[in-house]
Amino acid sequence: MKYIFIIIFLYTALFSADTSSRKSQELEKYEISKIEDTEAKKGMQKWINRDFGLKPHKVNYILPYAYREGTYKSYVSTDEYRNIEAELQVSLKLYLGTGLLGLNESYYIAYSHQAFWQIYSESSPFRETNYNPEGFIEFPIFDKTSYLNMKSIKLGLAHTSNGQGSNTDVVYANPADNPGNRSRSLNYIYSEFAFQYKTLLTEFRLISPFPGTADDIDNPDIMDYLGYMSVKVNYFKAKHMFTLMGRGNFTTGYGAVESTYSYPVLDDAYLFMKIFSGYGESLIDYDNYITKFSVGFSFSR
Question: Which of 10, 46, 192, 274 has the fewest Cβ atoms within 10 angstroms?
């Protein structure tokens, strides 16, 4: 059953009719031109177009094959995780408005959901799921004479967690059965600066945990591994897109690098490959070094 789900998902995304044809068929299905109620007509039109303002935020993908060196640590004594799994990510943002400060700034809320699915195991559990709601303001930079060619400044407020409750107070008859605390979370603020040189786009981000949350009992040393800054470059060459991200903590020497490649196979689907090496691939394993290769399809860049 689990493999059928993957096959159906990929078939629907990759081999269905093209986007413009589907939209045309959907519009022709309903007759609204003669509706006199203006507001009802407007609402129906948005419903038919599926136009509710949601846009891609981070990359949206499904990667049926994700292989890592070594094995995953199990935080549930009955589970034995394999080093081959599937990855999924859904990430959307909603535009709220512009110009409250008179600086032509734009306001957004966003939500990202990343799941690590042990689809090749017998019971196919989700090894880890990470949730990342956030809100941010983006200030455009119109000065085109700057040597650095800065395009925007973004200020954000975010929370990330794996949705697990703390079990530090649970008493086990056999202490060896205690898998340890599975809860992971972090509240943080960030600033991001975007630059452009022709088809090379660079994003420089600074991260700061909320006062009092960096030493949370769930993950007291998480910033030692995630670090306080990251740099990501995005490069476009014809239809190809390459990205390279690096982040880390200069004091501890821990961090991670991630590289991706995408190529369009249809208007709304891309071949997508990802290589990750370092700490913080997921919250549950933030302090475990992981090197991993994943391949599949993305539905945004």
Answer: 46
